[in-house]
Structures are given as C-alpha cells and as structure tokens.
Design brief:
5 helices; mainly alpha
Length: 78
C-alpha cells in the first residue's frame, strides 16, 4: 500500500492539484484520496481504480498463488 500511496501522491502533486481538487476530478470523496495517500489497507478497489484511471492505470485482483508463482520465477532468474 505504501507504493500505491507514494504513486498517487507524487502524481497528484506533479499535476499541481490539491487533494480536494483531485478528488473532485476523479469523482471520489476527499476521504478516499486521504486514505490512499496515507497507505490505508481497507480500500474499495472500484474507488482506487477511479483514482488510478486519472493516470492511465488500474489495479486488478491477483491470487496469492499467482504472486507466489511469479516470485519463484523471478528467484530462478537471479
């Protein structure tokens, strides 16, 4: 979540938007932006994706098995 928080905050600041302005443009409540930028873990994926779409990105659910398999592949390449 820290990586998501850092990404959103940096992109928002680069766009020279306040949290309030960004929330309005993304179509979410100000509290959503604050929770994302604070790295909160209990977030609504749909709302997070509304925010990320402002930067041309989205998050998709991934199973823990898929992540484990990818980590194994990366370890084997090292």
């Amino acid at each position: 979540m820290e990586e998501l928080a850092r990404f959103v905050k940096e992109k928002r600041k680069f766009a020279n938007l306040t949290q309030e302005e960004f929330a309005e443009r993304a179509g979410v409540a100000l509290t959503v932006i604050r929770k994302i930028e604070q790295g909160k873990e209990n977030l609504n994926l749909e709302k997070v994706n509304r925010v990320l779409k402002m930067f041309g990105h989205v998050l998709i659910p991934v199973s823990s098995k898929t992540l484990s398999d990818k980590n194994k592949m990366m370890d084997e390449k090292s």
